[in-house]
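We modelled the chain as a single entity of 131 amino acids. Its sequence is:
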Amino acid sequence: MRDRREGLDGLGVDVVAVAPTAAYQAQHLMQTGIPFPCLLDPERNLYRALDLGRIKAMAWLRLDTYRNYLRAVGRARQGLVSASGAVQRPGLVIVEPNGRLAYIHRGDTVGDYPNLDGVIARLRLLTITPE
């Protein structure tokens, strides 16, 4: 999302990262240029509410899991990758101002995120006000 910030400007949206990781990781991310808040959910309350459990055991047998993991470690900005973060199923949600869940992507494996062009297009549709 950081790399696609220009597509979000002018839409009036807020981006927030949530992770079940250590406080030092969130602090490091915000100090090294992540342009949005990084919140911690060590009890995984939000993950449970969104049905984002742990990565299934079968996913660890897939080649793309390891490819995504190595790519994530290679460009990690949070410092060390914590064990709890490595097994957490990734996700991306769009929540409307009224609290309605407008979109959810539940990743199957490490680094399984939706195409950001599609996410930005959805956000544009949600932020257009009819005349």
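As a brief sanity check on the tokenised model: The chain has one domain: 2-126. Helices lie at 5-8, 23-31, 45-49, 63-74, 83-87, 116-127.
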